[in-house]
Design goal:
Blueprint lengths: L10 H25 L3 H8 L15 H5 L4 H22 L4 H16 L12 H11 L2 H17 L2 H18 L3 H17 L1 H9 L10
Helix pairs in contact: 1-4, 1-5, 2-4, 4-5, 4-6, 5-6, 5-9, 6-7, 6-9, 7-8, 8-9
Length: about 210
């Protein structure tokens, strides 16, 4: 940034910085608003199943929607929660990678902390995968392969997601997507924090396995 002889920023410099920051700020707002749409809650209410937050874990994500017994609604929630991350990252990327990263981060945070629901949202795995699809599509195959492999070996959905999120930023880094890898390192840390109750149950052997009814 150019400076005048006194070493202070000129008006032109400040104006140029503000113009450069606008796409990122717009991407953050767009991503958050899109990510904060609580599809699980909307779909279950439209289906006459009441408030999904009143059952199971109280979560608005697909796993808790599945506890209503409606597999189609759970699948729709999973898809829509992923696609809102994809849309945010892909659309904002038209203004550059930084804007796409900002929108992807904001969409993920919007899903976890939606202002409309008192900042109590989902755990973010579907939206995490959706942002991956929007920024580096090939990584969805990597994530899916790790998840399926772990699920086959352990029968734990939560552990499969945790391992897949841990692997994703490492693979992104080795593929040369350094900026995106840093984004997903942050998203992974947040995802693990949101799954701390699951981690506790995994450690003491009380976590439910895939297919179990307990």
């Amino acid at each position: 940034m150019e400076r005048d002889v006194s070493g202070e920023n000129t008006v032109s410099d400040i104006f140029t910085w503000q113009l450069g920051a606008l796409p990122t700020l717009a991407a953050l707002a767009f991503g958050y608003l899109l990510g904060s749409i609580p599809f699980g809650l909307i779909l279950t209410r439209m289906a006459g199943l009441g408030d999904v937050r009143a059952i199971g874990s109280g979560n608005i994500g697909a796993t808790n929607v599945l506890r209503t017994g409606n597999k189609k609604l759970a699948a729709a929630t999973l898809l829509l929660d992923a696609l809102k991350g994809t849309a945010a990252a892909a659309v904002a990327s038209r203004w550059g990678l930084d804007a796409g990263i900002a929108a992807g981060l904001a969409a993920f945070l919007g899903h976890l902390f939606p202002v409309w629901l008192g900042f109590k949202g989902g755990k973010g795995v579907a939206t995490y995968v959706g942002v991956l699809l929007g920024l580096v599509p090939v990584m969805v195959a990597v994530f899916a392969a790790v998840w399926i492999g772990m699920a086959y070996l352990t029968r734990y959905s939560s552990l499969s997601a945790l391992v897949a999120t841990a692997v994703s930023p490492v693979v992104l880094w080795f593929l040369g997507h350094e900026k995106v890898a840093l984004l997903f390192a942050v998203l992974t840390v947040i995802t693990w924090w949101k799954h701390r109750a699951n981690i506790g149950r995994l450690m003491n052997g009380t976590e439910s396995r895939i297919g179990s009814k307990g």
